[in-house]
Specification:
2 domains; five-stranded parallel sheet; Rossmann fold; seven-stranded parallel sheet; 32% helix; alpha/beta
């Protein structure tokens, strides 16, 4: 009888998907499956990092239960492939696994629609002055926004979407429906569908003076780290706003805070930060022109099943000796070309 295929995963994932995993492996190559729990000395060929494993941990602050699983990953001598629930692969443990030569696949696209919806919700809330309206509600104050306080029409405003993976493309499609002019910055200058102009990340500064809405949905790479710095913010016209559902370090956070405090930037919706969790004493919490959420733009109750479907499809491919989908590149720390996209695609 064949040796069982050992798979490291959480108890919750085993209970939820164990039967489907066993059927997939049995159908693909006839082997039985042994489910391995994270513990000192644990070994497995495959690992699934599901949402409950990372929990409230961030790449800056890892909680004990998450660290226990990370230690099991790093200590498993037979480990060859790891699938993660997220679109990004920039946590230090994933960087180390790729550096060691393991295959690492992401769940790119599993929450792309949800992130795009959240980015658009944040944008629309800023456009319609919801922060001011909510503040008035809390004060029991009747303040209709008329005259000079009226929100600007969105039609004919210009949005620059930075990053053109599934998230950026979804955002762009809705912006066009809303009547905005669309500009796109992406890893290459290949023309983005619907965009009046497409530039590379390095050429963003050339279009910033036209931009009313700067929407970030790109990966964190050497090309995008601090892409939006003090000089970039200064090139934006008065009244411009920023939406960030990418990574915190795409923006120079002190420069962003200064621009918001000075009203050089009219407002921002932020879901990601330079350090997470956001420190309790960060000025961001109290800025009246900011909507701040705790890196939760992609959370939705349908994500887990989408991740499971991606893992099971790759598990069948693994068992049949076929290439894995959404595999992170061989370079250490390499992440998708656009947040929520296959690193091997040209987008």
């Amino acid at each position: 009888m064949s040796e069982p295929l050992r798979i490291l995963l959480s108890l919750a994932a085993r209970d939820r998907w164990g039967a489907r995993i066993e059927r997939t492996v049995a159908d693909a190559d006839g082997r039985p499956v042994t489910f391995v729990a994270p513990a000192p000395g644990a070994d497995a060929e495959i690992a699934l990092v599901s949402r409950e494993i990372t929990g409230l941990s961030t790449k800056h602050h890892v909680l004990p239960d998450t660290q226990r699983f990370y230690d099991a990953l790093l200590g498993a001598p037979s480990l060859r492939w790891v699938h993660v629930h997220s679109a990004g692969a920039d946590r230090p443990v994933y960087v180390e696994l790729v550096r060691r030569g393991l295959a690492l696949t992401t769940s790119s696209g599993s929450n792309a629609g949800v992130v795009a919806q959240t980015a658009l919700a944040g944008m629309l809330a800023l456009a319609r002055h919801f922060p001011q309206l909510i503040a008035a509600q809390r004060e029991h104050a009747w303040r209709p926004q008329m005259g000079a306080d009226s929100p600007r029409d969105l039609q004919s405003q210009t949005a620059l979407v930075v990053g053109w993976g599934p998230i950026g493309q979804t955002i762009g499609a809705v912006l066009l429906i809303l009547g905005l002019r669309l500009l796109v910055a992406r890893s290459s200058a290949v023309v983005a569908a619907g965009a009046e102009r497409t530039v590379t990340f390095e050429d963003v500064g050339a279009v910033l003076p036209q931009v009313d809405w700067l929407i970030l949905a790109c990966p964190l790479t050497d090309r995008t780290r601090h892409l939006v710095d003090a000089a970039a913010l200064a090139r934006l016209p008065a009244g411009a706003r920023l939406v960030n559902v990418a990574r915190g370090d795409v923006v120079d956070e002190p420069a962003l805070i200064a621009a918001l405090q000075a009203r050089q930037l009219a407002g921002a919706y932020l879901d990601v930060y330079a350090h997470e969790p956001l420190a309790a004493d960060s000025p961001i919490w109290d800025l009246p022109n900011v909507i701040a959420t705790p890196h939760s733009a992609g959370f939705s109750d349908g994500n887990a099943e989408r991740v499971a479907a991606m893992f099971l499809a790759n598990l069948e491919a693994w068992c049949r000796g076929r290439p894995l989908a959404l595999q992170v590149g061989a370079g250490a720390g390499r992440v998708p070309d656009e947040r929520g996209s296959n690193p091997g695609s040209r987008i």
